[in-house]
Amino acid sequence: MLCPVFLPLRGDEMQQTALRLERGYCGRLGWSLVLTNVLMLVWQLWLTWQMLAGNLLGGMDAYMLLTLVGYYLPALPLAFWLCRKIPVPPRTRRPFSVRRLGRWLVIGIGLMWFGSLVGDWLSDLVFRVAMLEPVDLVTEAISEMPLSVVLLGGCILGPLFEEVLFRGLLAGRLARYGQKPAAFVSALLFGLYHANLSQFCYAFLLGLLLAYAHFYTGTLKMPVLLHILINLYGSFVVFLLPERGLLPLLYALSWPVLAIAAVVLLVRGRKKQVWEHGPCAPSMRAVFINVGMTAAIVFFFVETALMYV
């Protein structure tokens, strides 16, 4: 299927027709994110009502786990159905490599540490500008979760569903404009989707890495596995450590050490990166200037602002 952007143009009318079609495709992607977020809010309200009424089996553990990931079960099929008419360009499949997974894991942990520093600084700045007491929203939320919820929801099911949505659906279809623009846009939306500044920076950086892993291997297996391992290292391992002693110190020191290693790996591998072009010329006007994507971004910004009220 030829891309409208590459069809022979007969003046402004043909060009505007092509742009409208591309905006329609990207608008559907934006609406799929809005749909996912609306279902998440409705799901959380329904779960809260069931919990207060005493109708939820499993108590608080079940409530937290279902709040984290339960809304994806109806949201993902509906999102894919909404975007079913968007052409998906073919991807080159490359073999799985444990060595490559290890390199990407080190890079991912390093990006997470650096992004967390920047994100925490921005979050504290917003709190101070708003004349509020700075609060580590992410750490506070995770500390209240049972270990089983962190493991199953935050480290296994969460990464799986997020990869299906952001790499499988969004990046896969945005690749029609080229894999680099697709990685950037999907990573930006992935960062905004977290709806807080503390997570935005590292989610954006990890989104770039996970999109590259998806495009390089041509499957979702590598980014899903990579995402799970990164979340395990960042959220689950700390629960297994004693409060005092050598192990917590080594774990804390591992973050800057791996960040330095990540910089080295990124610098050494920058010329070996493989990005494929898509069938369409990159068009950020088509991606962002449409009702669906605008609605999604506004939704994300409102959610983020409410976190600091």
Describe the overall structure.
- The protein is 75% helix and 0% strand.
- The chain is globular and about 65 Å long.
- With 309 residues, the chain is mainly alpha-helical.
- It contains twelve helices and no strands.
- The longest helix has 41 residues.
SSE order and pairing:
Blueprint: H1 12-52, H2 59-69, H3 72-82, H4 98-129, H5 137-143, H6 147-174, H7 179-193, H8 197-217, H9 221-240, H10 246-269, H11 284-288, H12 291-306
List keywords for this structure.
single chain; 309 residues; mainly alpha; globular
Shape: globular
Largest sheet report: none
Overall SS class: mainly alpha
Distance between the termini: 48 Å
- The residue-averaged pLDDT reads 90
Write down how many β-strands occur, each being a DSSP E stretch of 2 or more residues: 0
How much of the sequence is in beta strands? Answer: under 5%
User: Over the alpha carbons, how many angstroms does the gyration radius reach?
Assistant: 20 Å
Q: Unreliable segments (pLDDT under 50, ≥5 consecutive)? A: 5-10
Oligomer: single chain
The count of helical stretches stands at 12
What is the succession of H and E elements? HHHHHHHHHHHH
Helix content bin: over 70%
Summary of the model, kept short:
The protein is mostly helical and 309 residues long. It contains 12 helices and no strands.
